[in-house]
């Protein structure tokens, strides 16, 4: 029994070596060795003692020397080392594959910031999301939930500019516009080109203007600034809020009220020849009232050009610009007022709008490429506007034909306005060249 056991020691694999040494072997094993003859002992004395060096099943090379029956066995286990290397290679391949898979999934799933600050993961199905949530706006592959309410929503009023393409663009960008008091006002003068100025400057992307005349500082001042703010268009940071009401220029308390709202308010005044302005004012009123008296009957006390000019009649009274400008200069420095020529605004709108953009601190975006001249109306028209992307003119009333006025009445009015015009030139520092 012992001979085959001893003979097989040289062929034992290292993992089969028993851990106990000869010193710790049981008594039965020692008894097997003792009966061996002298020949066997002599043979062993002549032959070198075989030794085997063992390595534990450890891929990192930590070896353990084992001995059995006085024989050291220590041999590198190449098979297990190769197996460990293959296992590590497989693990690396699996890790790389999983990383690529996770990256692909991450491109499909998007992190959505909500109003509360939490994040929600959603599949990239923008059409379905927009159907379920009307207030979800999509910008590229990012979905933002945008509340479109503001502090004035509870007052019950609406602003027609909320549906303009510019405002829809802001909502699509995921921005949160809010309403502010105006930074600039077009305060006058009536029938001098205030509507044209407003429409032209609204082409600028950094300008947002109320769509209608609010009449806050002359009719609705008692309703308070909160009411006024609600009637302003929503804007974002960097945009300028504007409003146009031509009657502010002739309202006695308007300068003080505007200064109380904001002493830094910038004021734009559109003026034209007071005689042609009065005729235009009369033409507009006559279009609404067919049985209106002739111009000469209203402009002069005796109803003819030979009489005294009737300054109690509105169209004539408004043309005394110097009288009203003095009130505004008591509340604001001249540097905060810009005077726009109504005649040049029609003849060369790009030049006047360039001055307005400089005055408001805006980049010159609106240029001659935005205008074309309508030879039928004799009035500049827009190639595009805030509400429309197609070319159009301002309205049917722009460029309307004036009634025939007695030339003697026109000469008499020019004589009347001449000293007031000179005073206005001195106050503004601009010679408008009116006859």
From TrEMBL:
Any idea where the Sulfotransferase domain is? Answer: 182-425
Membrane-spanning regions, if any? none
Chief location of this protein?
membrane
- List where in the cell it is found: Endomembrane system; Golgi apparatus membrane
* Keywords of the record: Disulfide bond, Glycoprotein, Golgi apparatus, Membrane, Signal-anchor, Transferase, Transmembrane, Transmembrane helix
Disulfide bond residue pairs: 381-393
Protein name as catalogued: Sulfotransferase domain-containing protein
